[in-house]
Amino acid sequence: MILSNIKLTNFKKYTEFEIEFGEGLVGIIGKNGSGKSTIFEAILFALYGEAKTRGNKELIRNANASVKDPVVVELEFEFESLEYKVVREFRGKALSAHAKFYKNGELTTTGAKEVTTSIVNLTKMSKDAFMHTLFASQKELISLSTLKNEDRKKMIRKLLGLEKIDFVEKELVEKSRELKREISAFAEVLLGEDEIKLKQEQIKSNEDAKKSISEDEKSKTKELESIKSRELHVKKELEVFAKTKEQKQKLFSELELAKNSKSSEVMNQVKLSAEVHELEHKQEELNKLGNLKSEYINLQEQLKNQEKLKEFHLKKEGLQKEQVNLRDQYTKSKSDIHTLEKACEMYEQYTFDIKNLDQDLHIRQDDIEAKHTIEKELLAEMAGEQKQIDVTNSKIAKLKELGSESECPTCTRPLIEEYDNVINSLVDIVNNTHQKKITEFKKQLLHVQTQKATLEAQKKAKEKEHLELSKSLNLIQSKLQDLKTAQEHFVHVEKKGLKNKEALKELEQYNYDEKQHYIILSNFTELEPKYKHLLSLETELKRFVLVKSDLANVTKNIEVLDSTCSDKEAEFKLVIYDDVKHKHALDEHEGLLKTIESKTAFINELKVQTAKIDGEIKNIQNSLENNETQLKKVQTKKDDLVDYEKIKLSLAEFKTKLNAKVAPRISSVASEMYSQITKGKYQHIEVSNDFDFFIYDEGKKYPIERFSGGEIDLANLVLRIAISKTLTELSGASSIGFLAFDEVFGSQDEARRMEILEAFHTIKEQYRQIFLISHEMEIKEMFERVVEL
């Protein structure tokens, strides 16, 4: 898997953000809180629909986004040369999950759970496995060497997903010690002339010993070949013995089978003979029964005819009784129809009257409403006039209060001598104008109210008349429905009577004699058991021919099997097998195998000694070659040389086979990378089954604490990468092509940071993408590509 591009919308601190990752060593650089780690949280969210740690979904939505704004993450990546795109969304107030998955631009999967399943099936990794495999933090790297043994073991088991394999969890212990990296360390490890001469003598001595062992090995190998030849010969003899024994056993089994088959056929012959004799006796018995079958069939036909006549007789009686009942119903229905027709005679008159009443009530209601409108208008007029009276009286009272010096209410000039005239004029207006109008309006209002009351009383009387008429009409309508039902019933009764009459006419031709029926039934009942016995005999005698044929075949088979037994017995006696010789051959073969095993073990031991000597020679030669290399580099590359020792990681004793595979694989991957990073100085890192780490230095292993802090940092780095690779292999996800490290520099000084960066440059060809998240702005020029936040 290679990450290509990610686009974020309203995800945590990002409102709108997009990155194209590129390949190589990629630096994600930014100050604390700038959202560096959020990018990789978004990658996890896109792939698995969850953030790094599960929690409140609301925390995923950007604080400035509204509930209507969706949270969207779009991730594009390459997997096994194919282009993929996954789109995750949280929508609405409830943040309901939606997802889509594309392959080479074509939509293949929709739905949050379905897309997660497709991702897991594609990468062969769950969310936890993906995090532990491809993401590492400074805390994890430091923990590899600083935690106590049980704590370290627990952490590595969690990374590998092995914490549930058994119940024995010990804390991982890591110790680190700083080793001197001064240039004088090179001088201390350089060999002196005496040491070089001694090592050369050791090589010659080992080569002589190797030659002696080689000659001894050749001699023992010749002896072994001779024994193997004899073993092969004996093995062939054993194959002949086994084949002969098998053949004799097979012939014995075939002979026993033939004898058993013969015995079975003889028993079958006796049984079939007895059955033939019994069937012959039953044939004689059947012949004696004569014409019983035809007599039974004749009686059966007569009995059927009698039962049919009885059925017609019973039907005729039923129809006659029904006709009597139908006549009564006919008479009653006719009477009911006449009564109901008389009761419904006034229907049309009542319908006409009620329509006239409806029209009359409608007219009276219109008149009442008109009178009511006039009443309201008169009351409004009276209220208007009364208001004018109240206003004029108010003016008169005010003038009287102010006296003759008051102003004219119309022209505002002082009244003086006009004072009395004005007051009298206002009083006259009140009495002769407004009050007169009110009196007239009251007369009109009384007349209108009287007419309205008369109309309402008339309307009430008409409504009562309408109610009584409606009741009578409803009663007639109910009787009309009864009349319709009675008429339909009358027609049904009439039709049914005519139909029964025709049926009775047809049944007149059939006569039924109950006594004769009883006689035939008695004769049939008496004859039936004999007839059933006859049928039983016929059924059994159908097998007669087949049983005779079986008896003939069995007799013939007995003759064939008798001949077969004789032939097999003669063939069995011809096969010669010596059990004693077979056992002797087996004992000799077993002895030869033990001898071969012991000889082989001795030869292998000689080979191990030879290999050990080769290893010692190679180590001494490597030491001499390394010494030559160091002599050349001491003067020119003092600042570039560092001492590294290999770290060996050991897991605590696990109870499954998987545990035994993990540690060696981590050791292998870590050793290869550490050797490359240290430029061959340290060739092997060992990880024990207890997750203790050892570094091999000149063929000897040392605990990690022996080495310098820089070497421990690099060892931690390759071990963490080795764990990631092992996780990838265990999960079957072989196409993951990137790693991500979060703040792996921690509080390292500048020199230490440069060493770690150089290490990443050394191993980058093993991964198409390596992401380093850091807040150290000054190291950004060390990356091939930088995403600065």
TrEMBL record:
Residues in Rad50/SbcC-type AAA domain copies: 6-237
GO terms (BP aspect): double-strand break repair
Coiled-coil regions listed: 269-329, 445-472
Keywords assigned by UniProt, alphabetized: Coiled coil
SUPFAM superfamilies: P-loop containing nucleoside triphosphate hydrolases (SSF52540)
Keyword ATP-binding in annotation: no
Molecular-function GO terms, alphabetical: ATP hydrolysis activity
One Pfam family, short name: AAA_23
Source domain of life: Bacteria
InterPro entries: P-loop_NTPase, Rad50/SbcC_AAA
Protein name: SMC family ATPase
Species whose genome carries this gene: Candidatus Sulfurimonas marisnigri
